[in-house]
Amino acid sequence: MGSVPTTTSLPNVPTLALADGSSTSMTSKAGNPVTSAADEERKRQRRKESEREWYLKHREDRLAKQRDYDARNRDRRLQQMKDYRTKHKEKQRAYKQDWYRRNRDAIRMKRTQRKVKGGGSMDDDDDDEDDNGASARGTALLSLLCDVALMT
């Protein structure tokens, strides 16, 4: 970052040739020379360097803020996912219980029909309820059906 020399004399001021043959120097109305392309380039470079310095100076602050923001959002999203999973599992469990409650009689009838047809085959191993309770209820239902059949 060198400093730009300032001089009062104008040694390198270009001149323009006019149509009438006279010449005039390229100066602004205030008397200052029009800045050359090199001066413009130096100004642009200085501005670019100062912007870069400011960017680097404030970079750590921006990164720290972003990390804090990301961490807070990550925690919030993880908690939301946990809450959703818990809620979803609870809904599934409640739906399953309700479904079994609504279809309890149909399930019992199908089980007893399988037992009566198959003679108590090993197909009953996939029951959701324990085998002892299911077989006791099946036996009770079978005896009830036999009693009803004997009455008629």
| End-to-end Cα distance | 113 Å
Number of strands: 2
Shape: rod-shaped
Widest sheet, order of strands:
1-2
Count of alpha/pi helices: 3
Total number of distinct structural domains: 2
Oligomer class = single chain
Largest β sheet strand count, sense and barrel closure: 2 strands, antiparallel
User: Stretches where pLDDT falls below 50 for ≥5 residues?
Assistant: none
Describe the structure.
With 152 residues, the chain is mainly alpha-helical. The protein has two domains: 36-102; 104-123 and 133-152, no CATH class. The protein has helices spanning 37-102, 104-118, 131-151, and strands spanning 15-17, 23-25. A two-stranded antiparallel ribbon has the order 1-2. A hairpin with a 5-residue loop joins strand 1 and strand 2 (23-25). Residues 39-84, 92-108 have a biased composition (Basic and acidic residues). It comes from Aphanomyces stellatus. Residues 122-132 have a biased composition (Acidic residues). Residues 1-135 are annotated as: Disordered.
Quick structural gist:
With 152 residues, the protein is mainly alpha-helical. It has three helices and two strands; from the N terminus they run ββααα.
Key traits:
mainly alpha; 152 residues; 3 helices; two-stranded antiparallel ribbon
Helix and strand topology:
Blueprint: E1 15-17, E2 23-25, H1 37-102, H2 104-118, H3 131-151
Antiparallel strand pairs: 1-2
Helix pairs in contact: 2-3
Biased composition (Basic and acidic residues): 39-84, 92-108
Region (Disordered): 1-135
Protein name: Aste57867_18817 protein
